[in-house]
């Protein structure tokens, strides 16, 4: 009997776990749960006899793969898979997958939660401003970016986007203005929302020179990855430009420094973008189906390692 382990430091909603169990039960698999673990040792112990693993932002490195002697597949229930050591997975003959798009609406909705909060001066009682008529720049135009664009239109915002890998025609076909570079996006937007993955190319790419292109009163929203921001440079810039705001659901390493920008900075205690029942259900159940399809039929459609 195959064993599937859900290892989530930040748990799925119970209804999502129930949905996953229905899928694994129907396949005749055993389902184990490791939630809210605090030590890596707990994960190393739990993976020992797992054939398949479902994770969220949980780190799967060479140690975890070494410990998981029977592991055949790990599915990141979500979009970004920078938390999996893909080379080590390949070396261990473990297939790694993600579940693209399944939590995109949830992340996109949070962008507007953060934005309304920032635009209303963090609900401090003073008059804020509206989103209607403001220019929203989306970097980049993947599943989350596209959902952000859709919702922004409901707010009657002007929507712009830049994506190095998505043709301008695709962006324009969605009724969004495609700009030619990141620089142009920051220059032409009142607000920029980040939706780029953390890669060698994007790491610390959101730097002082780029953010400084935002016009007066600009807002930077990050629901992507903390690694894409050059925190030292952003702090320097926010010290100089007291008009800038930064809101994120991914606590920066320098949170204590950013916290000094009272009324211009907000973060959540945990990453909250995908923390809805719907996103948990969509991504968790998709992960379970992908595991069954892989173990039973060898389907590798969403494989991200080679
Ligand atoms: C993702 O990459 O899917 C999101 O960042 C959500 O991450 P989480 O599952 O840790 O909330």
Please explain how this structure is put together.
- By secondary structure, the chain is an alpha/beta fold.
- Helices cover 37% and strands 17% of the residues.
- The protein has twelve helices and twelve strands.
- It has a seven-stranded parallel β-sheet, sandwiched between helices.
- It is elongated, with a radius of gyration of 20 Å.
- The two termini are 27 Å apart.
- The mean pLDDT is 98.
- 3-phosphoglyceric acid binds at residues 10, 56-57, 78-80, 103, 271, 273-275.
- Residues 10, 56-57, 78-80, 103, 271, 273-275 line the site of 3-phosphoglyceric acid.
Can I get a quick summary?
By secondary structure, the chain is of the alpha/beta class. 37% of the residues lie in helices and 17% in strands. The chain has helices spanning 14-26, 40-46, 62-67, 86-91, 104-119, 143-154, 168-173, 182-188, 208-211, 231-240, 255-258, 277-297, and strands at residues 3-8, 30-35, 52-55, 73-76, 95-98, 135-139, 158-162, 177-178, 191-194, 219-222, 245-248, 265-267.
């Amino acid at each position: 009997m195959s064993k599937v382990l859900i290892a989530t430091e930040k748990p799925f909603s119970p209804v999502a776990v129930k949905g996953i169990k229905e899928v694994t039960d129907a396949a005749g698999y055993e389902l184990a749960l490791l939630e809210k673990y605090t030590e890596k040792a707990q994960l190393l112990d739990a993976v020992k006899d797992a054939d398949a693993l479902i994770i969220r932002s949980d780190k799967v490195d060479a140690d975890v793969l070494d410990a998981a002697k029977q592991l055949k597949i790990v599915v990141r229930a979500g979009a970004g898979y920078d938390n999996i050591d893909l080379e080590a997975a390949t070396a261990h003959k473990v297939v790694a997958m993600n579940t693209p798009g399944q939590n995109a609406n949830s992340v996109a909705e949070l962008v507007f939660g953060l934005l309304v909060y920032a635009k209303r001066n963090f609900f401090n009682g003073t008059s804020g401003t509206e989103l209607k008529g403001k220019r929203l720049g989306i970097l980049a135009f993947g599943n989350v970016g596209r959902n952000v664009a859709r919702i922004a239109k409901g707010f009657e915002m002007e929507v712009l986007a830049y994506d190095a890998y998505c043709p301008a025609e695709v962006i324009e076909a969605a009724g969004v203005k495609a700009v030619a570079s990141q620089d142009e996006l920051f220059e032409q937007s009142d607000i920029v929302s980040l939706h780029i993955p953390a890669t060698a190319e994007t790491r610390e790419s959101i730097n002082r020179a780029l953010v400084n292109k935002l016009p007066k009163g600009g807002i930077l929203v990050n629901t992507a990855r903390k690694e894409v921001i050059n925190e030292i440079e952003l702090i320097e810039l926010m010290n100089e430009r007291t008009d800038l705001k930064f809101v994120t659901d991914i606590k920066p390493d320098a949170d204590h420094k950013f916290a000094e920008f009272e009324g211009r900075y907000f973060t959540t205690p945990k990453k909250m973008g995908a923390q809805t029942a719907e996103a948990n259900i969509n991504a968790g159940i998709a992960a379970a189906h992908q595991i069954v399809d892989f173990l039973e039929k060898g389907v590798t459609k969403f494989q991200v390692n080679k």
